[in-house]
Amino acid sequence: MKTAITATCLALFWASTLPVLASEKPVNITQAVKAVDVLHLGKNVSIERNPDTDNMIDPDYTLTSRPCPPYCIQPMQLAPGVETIGELELLEYLKKVGRDANVMVIDSRDSDWPLRSGVIPGAVAIPWQELHPAHTDAEKIAETLVFRFGAARQGSLWNFENAKTLVLYCNGPWCGQSPTNIKQLLALGYPAHKLKWYRGGMQDWKMLGLSTVLPK
Asked: How many CA atoms lie within 13 A of 173 on its CB side?
């Protein structure tokens, strides 16, 4: 009997000292955070990383050398006062979506991209053309500013005192769609401190295996 107990104890000891395979380790967002719950179209969605440690990045984001122009590397600081953020900061804004009416996260990509690769849960797809005067008439842009972003018109001027904090992203550090929107909003007088830019965009989001959802 004593021999059997000793053998069992030794087996448990050696099992505890064996190396843990990578596939058996958790794939958390941070050491302390496994997932983040956000609201997407009024429904709860958990953002987490793909648990498969052999998972590979989507083919759409494997190219390294897109022609420049137009796919040129963007600077780290887009404009004075506009904060460039990473994934963890973006997650903090996503947690506010649907709970804080003053925050909106915007996917600025061409409308076909969200259908191909999904959107970040909590983000609203507003193609960059909808905020660009070369593609959308001024009145429709004004409607977006008023009814979606919370700006107010005062004659020919804009009042952004109660406007939302906008967090914009597109395809990644080589994508100029969200930067174009941010520069256009700045030109209209949108306060720089109310504009945030996730420079890594979908390229970095996919590279880290984070959750996406298909747009409605």
From this structure: 13
Q: Is 6 domain-assigned?
A: no
Whole-angstrom distance, CA of residue 111 vs CA of residue 26? 34
Structural domains in the chain (count): 1
CA pair distance 20, 3, nearest whole angstrom:
28
CATH number at 96 reads 3.40.250.10
Residue 199 sits at the vertex; the CA angle it makes with 197 and 203, to the nearest 5 degrees, is 135
Q: Is the overall model pTM greater than 0.70, yes or no?
A: yes
- In the prediction, which pLDDT does 155 show? 84
Digit-coded pLDDT (tens) for 47-68: 999 999 999 999 989 999 999 9
Q: What is the largest CA-CA distance in the chain?
A: 92
Nearest of 130, 128, 194, 126 to residue 160 by alpha carbon: 194
| pLDDT, position 23 | 54
Q: Would residue 9 count as lying in a domain?
A: no
Rounded Cα gap, residues 195 and 168, in angstroms: 8
Measured between alpha carbons, how far is residue 198 from residues 171, 182, 188 in Å? 10, 11, 21
Does residue 179 lie within any of the structural domains? Answer: yes
Report if residue 8 sits inside a domain: no
Q: Where are the alpha helices (DSSP H) in the chain?
A: 2-17, 87-94, 112-117, 138-147, 177-188, 201-207
Q: Which domain holds residue 180?
A: 27-207
127's CB contacts (< 8 A; 6+ apart) are: 108, 109, 110, 111
CA distance linking residue 150 with residue 160, whole number of Å: 8
